[in-house]
Write a structure and sequence with these properties.
9 helices, 10 strands, Cobalt-precorrin-4 Transmethylase, domain 1, five-stranded mixed sheet, binds S-adenosyl-L-homocysteine, 19% strand, 2 domains, single chain, five-stranded parallel sheet, Methyltransferase, Cobalt-precorrin-4 Transmethylase, Domain 2, alpha/beta
Length: 272
């Protein structure tokens, strides 16, 4: 078990005058990436922190297998979005983290994948920084990396893609508001997070902006988990294929010629 050395803390503590007479703040928030689902993809640092945390505030995408590493006595607070369930708003989560740290707790803020990639981790740490709360960030395997690996789809490959673009397909006003000319470039892989609902629009727009209707595309549901499913197709037929397969969130979309390699590199046997 690690011991905390206050000298290691390079972040400013709370202003001395703000807390005059009160016990010093000793709490700290660790923003930890939980990876895409398979607990084997956790970092050693994540496992160590989960085992010693007083409180773990976790999101929807954190798998049950990952939560098994939380110490039995630790408090668990679910902060994610779940349909038909009351969940915390972003400001409430920020306030909760500040409050727990002020109570002197060692807090793990656990997020799916990597906390700094489409995870609002930056916003949460900004809120802590503003309040003078000490924090650390522990990277995780982001979905693009973990899910593509388990689907046997290399993000780059000398024959097919020299670059890779991560974008969010989260809908704003019912349409995906993306930089289409940069998305349709040849010899690159496009990875779309949160793009399931927008998939028909994305495929249509990419074709409208000059991509071949035959460009390969894969949608991976629950990547790295026993429930992983991979559906492949082309920009022209993918919306229909995904609807037929009945894929549900979380799904990651990968677009580009590297998707052709799935047939040969599909190593993961999810139900095994
Ligand atoms: N911070 C996370 C992303 C959060 S956004 C990360 O770095 O991975 C949530 C989106 O991530 C989901 O809508 C989905 O597009 C993707 N995602 C996360 N885990 C996934 C998984 N196991 N399988 C497929 N997609 C996943």
């Amino acid at each position: 078990m690690e011991t905390m050395n206050p000298m290691d803390d390079c972040l400013p503590g709370p202003p001395a005058s703000a807390n005059a007479g009160a016990p010093p703040t000793v709490g700290r928030v660790y923003l930890v990436g939980a990876g895409p689902g398979d607990a084997e993809l956790l970092t050693l640092r994540a496992v160590r922190l989960l085992q010693k945390a007083d409180v773990v505030v976790y999101d929807q995408l954190v798998s049950d297998a990952v939560l098994e590493f939380v110490a039995p006595g630790a408090q668990r607070i679910f902060a994610g979005k779940r349909r038909n369930e009351h969940t915390l708003r972003q400001e409430q989560i920020n306030a909760l983290l500040v409050q727990l740290a002020r109570e002197g707790k060692q807090v793990v803020r656990l997020k799916g994948g990597d906390p700094f990639i489409f995870g609002r981790g930056g916003e949460e740490m900004q809120a802590l920084a503003e309040q003078g709360i000490a924090f650390e960030v522990v990277p995780g395997v982001t979905a693009a990396s973990g899910v593509s690996s388990y689907a046997g789809i290399p993000l780059t490959h000398r024959d097919y893609a020299q670059s890779c673009l991560f974008v969010t397909g989260h809908l704003k006003d019912g349409t995906a508001d993306l930089d289409w000319p940069s998305l349709v470039r040849e010899r690159q892989t496009v990875v779309i997070y949160m793009g399931l609902n927008a998939l028909p629009d994305i495929c249509r727009q990419m074709i409208a902006h000059g991509a071949s209707p035959e460009r390969p595309i894969a949608v991976v549901q629950n990547g790295s988990l026993a429930t992983q499913r991979v559906v492949t197709g082309t920009l022209a037929d993918m919306a229909q294929r995904v609807a037929q397969a009945g894929l549900v969130s979380p799904c990651l979309t990968l677009i580009g010629d590297v998707v052709r390699l799935h047939n040969t590199l599909d190593w993961f046997q999810p139900q095994a």
